[in-house]
Amino acid sequence: MRVLVIGANGKVGKHIVDKLSDYGHEPVPMVRDTDQFPHFEEKGHKPVLGDLEKDFDSAFYNIDAVIFAAGSGPHTGADKTILIDQEGAIKAIERSKYFGIKKFVILSSIAADRPESTPDTIKHYMFAKHRADEHLKQSGLTYTIVRPGILTNNSGTGKVKLQKHVPGFEKIPREDVAETISFLLSESQALNKSFDLVSGEQRIQETLTN
Amino acid sequence: MRVLVIGANGKVGKHIVDKLSDYGHEPVPMVRDTDQFPHFEEKGHKPVLGDLEKDFDSAFYNIDAVIFAAGSGPHTGADKTILIDQEGAIKAIERSKYFGIKKFVILSSIAADRPESTPDTIKHYMFAKHRADEHLKQSGLTYTIVRPGILTNNSGTGKVKLQKHVPGFEKIPREDVAETISFLLSESQALNKSFDLVSGEQRIQETLTN
């Protein structure tokens, strides 16, 4: 599939572009600035320009599936949490409906399905992620929601715990998140499902076989 | 009707409590702190305790209609915009469904139906208000959405412009907003409709007759 990666320049996004290739897909990295092109071009990809806060319709040309991995990051205010994490996602979902996208995978966060139970310092963020996930569920698009635990920059191990619900806030390397998303993209058992995802004992390719 | 006023201690909320009485309703002011009780008790009302960020189910006892006039105010961050203006409203809508509330009126903001067109400084706020309004529209509740222009503390004139859409950002006294909401509450022509509201030339009671 030709897969638009929204937020490709992020830490997880870059891994996703790499892993999609490993899994036989053609990633189309969407970035905000041509300065971000060389990183992807050097790997043989053809990035497209698109700004979540403006117009990014042209990025959908000839796209089969969308992975939403954008986030405003830890150094911006809650205003950007609304504009990027929540509204950027909702806009991407709406435009995906318009363009007839076959599959939409969203990178959410552990606890985004239970925002009211999270600490006050992150509660607004969890509610914003929750709204985006809920919008996707009700969009009519074929979706998969992946809610990873606390992200680390460690190398991937290829082994995870992928379940409907994992208690607490365990960790997981960004590389393993990216591989799991790339794996789930074309798995029929992941259609219209939501998962928590943390490091574990099961090989990624075997997570749906039990 | 017995009308739960969420955000009763706010500037518009206090006017709403007064105007509801003028229009023959029984206001039930919901406030966060018993310190806020005397203001309402002195006027013969019976306030109830409820915190939008926690539990406020007990406030719904014997309530017919809900007016949502809460807002995090201009001195808090965008995190509170998410938690109060957006999520507080969504929670109030959901609890109103649960309790079989007959009518839900939300105090929105002019331009909340076109957030993408607003200045960057207020865009996140407009999107949060927009999400709350959209949630109400799709809730199945009988609703009225009122989007006032820039609020002033001037005395009410009793004359407004109430239309589906008013361009720009005109002003309106909070007292006139409160009276318009109180008037619309039991008007069948306002059911499941949304209005912009600014100062104008038409008497409030005649706004739906043209």
What does this structure look like?
2 copies of one chain form a homodimer. With 210 residues, chain A is of the alpha/beta class. The first copy, chain A, is 32% helix and 23% strand. In chain A, β2 (26-31), α2 and β3 (48-49) form a beta-alpha-beta unit. In chain A, α1 crosses α5 (174-184) and α3 (78-98) packs parallel to α4. The longest helix of chain A is centred in the middle third of the chain and has 21 residues, at 78-98. Chain A is globular. The interface between A and B is medium-sized, with 15 and 15 residues.
Give the gist of this structure.
The first copy, chain A, has helices at residues 11-22, 37-41, 78-98, 120-137, 174-184; strands at residues 2-6, 26-31, 48-49, 65-68, 103-107, 143-148, 150-152, 159-163, 171-173, 193-199, 202-203. In chain A, helix 3 packs parallel to helix 4.
